[in-house]
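Hello forum,

I keep getting stuck at the same step: I have a sequence, I want structure tokens, and every attempt I make locally crashes halfway through. Rather than fight my setup again tonight, could one of you with a working pipeline run this one for me? It's a single chain of 879 residues.
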Amino acid sequence: MRDLPTGTVTFLFTDIEGSTRLLGRLGATYRDIQEQHNAILRKAIEEGDGREIGTEGDSFFAVFPAAGGALLAAAQAQRGLAAATWPGQADVRVRMGIHTGEGILGGDNYLGLDVNRAARISAAAYGGQVLLSGSTRALGERSLPPGTRLMDLGQHRLKDLREPERLYQMVIEGLDQDFPPPRTQEGRPNNLPVQLTRFIGRAEEIAQIRELVAANRLVTLTGPGGTGKTRLSLEVAATALSAMPDGVFFIDLSSVMEPRMVASMIATTLNVRENPGRPVVETLADHLRDKELLLVLDNFEQVVEAGPDALEPLLRAAPKLKALVTSRVPLHLYGEHEFKVPPLILPDPDHLPDPRAVMEFDSVALFAERAAARRPQFRVGADNARTVAEITARLDGLPLAIELAASRMNLLSPESLLARLQQRLPLLRAEDRNVPERQRTLRRTIEWSYELLDEAERRMFSRLSVFAGGADLEAIEAVVNPDGELGIDILDGLASLVDKNLVRSVDTPDGEPRFAMLETIREYGLEQLSKSGDERLVRRRHAEHWIHVGERTSETLFGADRPAVSRRLEQDHENFRSALTWVLESDEPELGLRLGAALRDFWREGGHYTEGIRWFQSLLAAPGAAGKTLLRARALTGAADISSWIGEIAAYLRFAEEAVSIYRELADPAGIPADALEELGAAQMFNGQLSEARVSLSEARQLNIALGNRQKAGECTLALSILTLIEGRPEEARAPMEEALATFEDLGSAWFTAFAERNVGHLDRLEGSLDAAENRYRKSLSGLREVESALGVGWVVYGFADLALARGQYERAVRLAGASRAIRDREGEVWSFDYVFVGDVRERARAFLDEATAENLYREGLEMQFEEAVAYALQPEPS
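Reply #2:
Ran it on my machine without issues. Output:
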């Protein structure tokens, strides 16, 4: 074991910028450059009393017992590199990163987060630049090499690291000092997924795509499956963060098959709620109009028809919006710039450079890193360089194919791996003439991995492919192997498939394990499922599981756990869509009606009104679904509920009336019609049929009391109190309203408690008890924030606006009315009975202000962000 320092040490990472380009231009001459570069680096490291830990191609990793020694080594190395005369008139520029932290040894190498942080700092630098961390500055500032100083570059987010790092540049007298901002992820809004493996190569492609994105509004990365379009787009997106003030957002369309859903997917990602009665694209266009933002739309090929209807209108409406698309085919939109993603650069097995230089090829570097993850002792050297080169050539440089093949290195030697590839992956041109050549290679790679599974693993793999967007353990156990018929433990099987890179383990916000497949692999799995004879059984189980999930979680969507429950349901949105599509295509009307009814609350609480009503319409119109059955009545009740949220009052009333009619005709003994009667009563109240509404709501309340359903009885009581107010008897509305509030509080029904609290506050305000009303609004606001009901918060802010008006605070009232309007617009405005209590605050306040002042105040409110609006509402007006 080498004598390496421990405790507080300083790490130095370096590498040549653009080395692949130099290798391609200079060929064998590049070896001379590398040897000269290595000599300069080693001499500098020695002068700084450092230890060389390892080299890989043109990169160096060294450690120093003192920060000053690392700074001296970096300065001496940069001076030596700048003064050198390079073969072929090459411009050799080396980037360097330095970080001081804890030296934890693992064998002959260092382990831990501080090593990763040093590597990330180096990756943020440009050729000729030396970057260092705050800890290195603190320990080394007093021992700076002569002719150097430090420049503070501010805080930056380094890739894959949670906490930001303050970076400093070592300015070396006589050398370049001016560099672009570090290649880091700034604190811009984004949802870019954290990558668990290092991105290999493609420096030139990244540079070219960045130039295209900088100069154009729409750039499409095209190529066959497996070329690494997704990972490349994410790498470009990460580098674009600093140039996008309003953020970078990734939208995975791999499981979306209906072009009309693309706009909804974008809206969901950007947290833009649908505006009932208005196309989603128009709502999105308004949201994005002044935003300087990059959308990364992945796997667009199966929804390419959405280009003209969804993407192009957004680009036209929002002049600062940019889109980076990945697709197997171009979109053919005006202004589109296509970038064909090439395979990774391949060495020629018959004309290999020096074995050390072969690692400069991205394909070999990718194989070597992924193989070493499976077999830590694996290295590319003189004894296996040709074999590895042949493996990557055999795989046509496809990143996914290379990764899948490298995953077998825990079992096979390079020679046996190559032999198996030659045996298992013939191109079979005659059989696959219509399939692109590289896609055939990828398919054979997946096929080969599949054939290495035993029979139980194969069946499990094919059954797992039924999940769109992945699934948690509960779903997998319920659908894949509920009775143990596969003869394999579910966890053992998953571990094996994850190990073989056919299934991925995905991190979730709540820490629950989730498992998913790459879409290309899932497509192959679905083919195997269709051949297995298991498909109908598995698809039925899949649909039945989501029925169970929807029914089970319905009540919890109104409790204190609402945010977590909503997030978990959203994770399986694609599974819901997949199950619904199957029941419609497979003539399963009863299953479809059950599934739609089970998902009713998810669609409503998730703001998916338009999608929900479209599914209900399809399910109710399906062959075999027209009979007067309890299942149809339940689905009609759900359709009525969703219709109310998009302002379709006629449909609301029609669905509810049919549901009640069926229940009455069947004389349902379980009392299920209480739900339908409640919807009918609300629909009649919306429609101005007040006497009919009272009859329906009263009957629904009595049915729920008889059934012992206090929650639903409380909802009916609350609706009756609102009806009483509409009828002009506010003094009689308080008792039932407070009764409903007490019921919800006792049940722990958080959302309804906050909703009722707001309504009681409105009554206080009408009676002139302004301080009591304010206390109610504050309680309601707190409760609605806890359950993450932004739309409800918007209406409470409107209550505060009315309160300000009653207190003679007219400017505050108008500003709050605007803030409320902005929140409700963002969340998807629906008509609310709050207008009955409060009226039009803006118009009433304008009577006390001049026109220009009123408009300016209202606009100020509209421009408030959510947290700003809430803080302003809760802040008392200065006296």
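The two ends are 75 Å apart (CA to CA). If your local run keeps crashing, start a new thread with the error log.
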